Amino acid sequence: MQQPQLANYGVRNRSVGGSLTSKVADHVLAENAYGAVANLVPYVKETAEVFNIPANVLLAILYEEAAHRKPIDVNTFGVAQLGLGELMEQGLPPDPDLYSNDRFSVWMLARKLRRLQVETGSLQAAITLHNGYSDYLPSIQRRARDPRLLQLLEAKKIWRVLTV
């Protein structure tokens, strides 16, 4: 059940279902998503520290965006799948090319979450509002505990220590 105040922001419920074919496709997308977010770990750690948002939460959101990206979505851009409205909300020009920089895209995701957290008083509400669906927060909470994502965060940390 969604929080009453989130309904004021237009948070929607969605039906969930799937065939065997969609489950196979989801598995392939999931594997690709792990590879995609592995390259983002340095940006995630840096940004998490600046905005005081848990790195595993940011990585979980980026994973979900990578795993569920629509093949042709002209309304969202970059690894965080943000819209041009978010650029304008942050006082930047509505230029989709800005999101082509992965570091910038991760930074903007964290800024959006922080802005929404200040508005609502809750990081959980901010996560829900980022996606707009009531089932998004539980999905992110599960994904934030995903051993493979946590291993990516730890492996990069160990790697950075060894290369110093």
Please give the share of residues in helix. 55-70%
What is the domain total for the residues?
1
The tally of beta strands, per DSSP, is 0
Using the alpha-carbon principal axes, give the shape. Answer: globular
Low-confidence stretches: 158-164
Structural class: mainly alpha
Mean pLDDT score, rounded? Answer: 82
Return the CATH topology: Lysozyme
The DSSP helix count reads 9
Instruction: Report the top-level CATH class.
Output: Mainly Alpha
Describe this structure in words.
It is a single chain. With 164 residues, the protein is mainly alpha-helical. It starts with a helix and ends with a helix. The chain is built from 9 helices and no strands. It has a single domain, classed as Lysozyme, CATH 1.10.530. It has helices at 4-7, 20-38, 41-51, 55-67, 84-89, 102-120, 123-131, 136-144, 147-163.
